[in-house]
Amino acid sequence: MSSTASSRSGSRSTCSAEGPHGVLAASVPMPFDLVRFAGTVLAAATAALHVRAEYRGPRWQVYLCKPLTTALLLGLALLAQGSGARYQAAVAVGLTLSLFGDVFLMLPGDRFVAGLASFLLAHVAYLVAFTAGVPLGTAPWLLAPYALAGAAVLRLVWPRLRRLRGPVLLYVAVIVAMAWQAAAGAWTLRTTPALLAAAGAALFVASDALLALNRFRTPFRSAQALVMSTYVAAQWLIALSVGPGPAAASP
Known about the structure:
Layout: E1 14-18, E2 24-29, H1 31-56, H2 59-79, H3 85-106, H4 112-130, H5 143-161, H6 165-189, H7 192-216, H8 223-240
Antiparallel strand pairs: 1-2
Helix pairs in contact: 1-2, 1-8, 2-3, 2-8, 3-4, 4-6, 5-6, 5-7, 6-7, 7-8
């Protein structure tokens, strides 16, 4: 996922203290670990406030907390150290485009196409990130579950898409490719950042499937909670994939 597998698998920076016989006694996280923890807590809090406001109001809380959550996750990606510059930049672009998509989808009126376009471009950015160090098309068998999931959702929502059939079909193709590439990266690199990215991509597919079914098939009351919880978890995992992680064995 970076220019080399090793550049994404550096060990986490720590301050160490040794006992009188030279044995490691303690390991204290460096400041970025504290920033990552604080950012995660704040993003979880704003996400929870957003979901609560979707059901109970006030509406201004939605307008504040929804984009703020993604902005906090963008901050985590920008402050991370240890990944290649290409990977970090592409993920940051993806999160920025997702922020635009969040705003389009929450504003009054039907801005679904603008939101769809923003997230489509976000997935293209993530695809660029996930091809760093892992050629496109690696592990072709990993495409199957995502292609089947995409086809199943399309079959369920197709009758009500009407003029949106073309854009939604393109969107599904791109997000399936993005998730497949993330899974291929995890299979190839076997590092913690690669596994985080793959898990985040899979959750993104699940979140968008729930959103599509709620909008174009059968609305259900828990949709906002399910869509947003999987969406925020997906973006959080992708943001955390920008940074060092313990190395795993190569395949």
